[in-house]
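Possible regression after last week's pipeline update?

I re-ran a chain I had predicted before the update to compare outputs. Posting the input and the new output here so someone can diff against the archived version. Not blocking, just want to make sure nothing changed silently.
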Amino acid sequence: MDQFAGQVALITGASSGIGAALARELARQGADVVLAARRADRLAAVAREVEGLGRRAVVVACDVTVDGDVERAAAQAHERFGRLDVVVANAGFGVVGPVEALALDDYRRQFETNVFGVLRTVHATLPYLRGARGRLVILGSVSGWIATPRSSPYAMSKFAVRALADALGHELAPAGVSVTHVSPGLVASEIRRVDNAGRFQPDADEPAPAWLIMPAERAAHLIVRAARRRRRQVVITAHGRVGVLLQRLCPWLVAGVIRRFGLQSRRASSR
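New output (post-update):
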């Protein structure tokens, strides 16, 4: 199934979870990939998997909070492959906690990665996408539709990128560039074991029940399918779709359930 044969995809946050699974899925569908993330050693392992699928991979150590890093990744993509057709703005993490326990710097740190990191990715890659009439995929969250207690920084950032995706979809349509906003529910990844400073805590427990968590490979397949079809919005996981639908139709019911059953975000990992 070579739906993306001859195309090149750049993925931020590609070292683990959904990002790594997207790299493998796009490679299976014929794309060469540019892998961008902070952990170069993890990227190298993903690159070997991509090459094992018969596609080419370029590894770029990249921090989306650093000006110039994503531009460098995009330039390397164009230098190596001569084109850039698909860009996935996937890098992100979650700051959580009650508002009175969080400082303004916690919110700034959250927005620097989840919002301004996406903007840096857009600015760095848009000229290439315009030239290719390509596809931009922005990873949001069900938390961008439904905010729960203790999730205000993360939810705010994901509400913001949903608005960005909506606006960009209108702006870029005349240029033939599609914008797909993806709202994952609970997907297998490391995000729930990353602390408020953005550090991975390998010994942290997975707070979500296993039966609710979608495998990353399944999520990646659904995301790539939505990008291929140039869909505007897609919600991944059944519980995510139900939650978003209820929030749209009867937000009072969702609020009642959250308050009645004490639903809230995970507790912050120790710093």
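Follow-up from reviewer: compared with the archived run. The chain has one domain: 8-261. Marking as no regression found.
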